[in-house]
Design brief:
Blueprint lengths: L14 H12 L10 H7 L5 H10 L6 H14 L9 H14 L11
Helix pairs in contact: 2-3
Length: about 110
Amino acid sequence: MEDYRVVKEFHFPTDALIQEWAIYCGFNESIEEFNDLDVYWRSKIHILPELSLLALIYIWLPVSGVDVERSFSSYKGILSDRRVALKEESIQMLNFLYFNLGSNIDNYDLIE
């Protein structure tokens, strides 16, 4: 847990979180076997409720400075001056499409 101090919940972890961490560390499985971290952590919610909820939040954060800069650049395009009147739901959908389709988003005709 010491190596993950960047996660604020690990600064002063609850007893339950410490117990779940110990259980998780005792698993004899390789996370590389799973293609989808979201599916992996959702499958652990009944065993590791607190740790799973944290993981489901943190797995979507950019992991490097390059990823962060790329995200800011993407958001600049999504939140351009032409799109100032977008509803929050529309912005979320644009984010989803952009980060799942990547640069290929321009190849799709999103408006019929």
